[in-house]
Amino acid sequence: MSSAFPWWHQAVVYQIYPKSFADGDGDGMGDLAGVRACLPYLRDLGVDALWFTPWYISPQADGGYDVTDHRDIDSALGTLQEAEELIVEARDMGMRTIIDVVPNHVAADHPWFTAAVAAPPGSPERHRFWFRDGVGPDGASPPTEWVSPFGGGTWSRAPGGGDQWYLHLFAPGQPDLNWNDPEVRAEYEDILRFWFDRGVAGVRIDSAAVLMKDPTLPEVGDNVTAGGHPFEDRDEVHEIYRSWRKVADSYEEEKLLVGEVWLDDRDRLARYVGPDEFHTVFGFEVMASPWQLTRLCAAIEDTLRTHERLGAPPAWVLGNHDVTRPATRYGRRDTGFSFADKAWGIETDVQLGRERARAMALVMMALPGSCYIYQGEELGLEEVEDLPRDVLQDPMFARSDGTSPGRDGCRVPLPWQADVPGLGFSIVPPTAAPWLPQPVHWAALAVDVQQHQPCSTLKLYRRALRLRRRLFGHAEPRVEWMDRGPGILAFRRDSGFRCVLNMGGGDHVLPAGSQVALSSDSTMPHDERIIRPDTAVWLRT
Ligand code: GLC
Fold it and tell me: Which fold would CATH assign to domain 12-105+183-450?
């Protein structure tokens, strides 16, 4: 459907974690053949674009975010030719492709890193990374005490590389690139062209705020000023993205740059978005907001205001491959999200969480901007919290010494069919079990079950996405807040449509004459004028 806005302004983007989406060859690991077989499912869901988390050759030290070759597909997932065919097939079905580009680091077996390890200190090969002598007697201590987001330190001794240490903000298998090296810059601009030339319509930029480091390598002080952190959100990082935007803008079709930028400071975050940088950044503030009216309203309002100022639409998101699934988060006492709070054994009411996640999906889809759906959200999947420890692969688990369960719980293979082994994850007779075990009760959430249930989460998503396209495709990106009493979040779009979310403790009764177009309530209330707690509705005028 044509619209007055560029394609990405209101696009619904479906995030595919390829290892866990669908398995096309029966080995228990998702792959591109699986995705291709399921493209009709995605088309029928009603999404406009697919975002693939890294599908490149990788030793999988961090779920593919350790890339050996950005220009080729991991053999466990398929081939470059299959990716090219997939991009075309998806486009023929009306879905664009967005890829993940990982500029902060490469894999430990990337040819550049192997060459750097083999080269002497001070060599051009080492200049592409952050090799430094250690401190203290015999250089036995790392150059800084920086703490990794994965837990632990950020430096490791170069394997067989003499006395030097190398920097890895994430896992040791992810050596950080030195973005002061012109070869690094040229390489990534070329990678962007490589994929844009193959019909890719956008790029999600991984860990976008941490590329530049203070070359004097100071410790992180107690009172870091904006732009003064040794490796986060340094001012010099923007030059990189300004040149990426020039690459994107050199194509006829508008190529989207969407940044993964985790920053609390809205003004600093806003600096990444604009006509010469990213088109948009993820709205993590809303995702992390607890289930609480004032906090949620403030997060939405804040995101809207920031983007309005920038003339760019927000990119709403409720979850992704890093974050505890919404059906679990919203069913806990603490309904917000922070990586630091990830823990084992938190009491959860998944049924409640699922109702709220359905309601939040309607809120997100009614807001102006694009929205991102992480695979499985449309099935109401919860975080799998009882995976055996010996199957966990996420470095966050290992690097926290097992104190954090890490992120595998939101990466469990999807259930497609209730009554077959592996819940139909393998589309051919499986020779192996899914790479992470699925909960037995996910049979009830399988696609083939949900598509026959009138109130299933899958049906809700399908209806909502269809309606959203019709209603908001031409609407101005404005929201008018409405006062509907305590515990009620309500807003109007200028197509006359309203969204009402009941976050209070009791039923909310709609005024006479209200017409409910869609409700997140999974129990089909007999009186549709009553909005029960933890549900949302869309209303026609
Ligand atoms: C991003 C990715 C995450 C990855 C990290 C390091 O945050 O979303 O999965 O572990 O970057 O690349």
Answer: TIM Barrel (3.20.20)
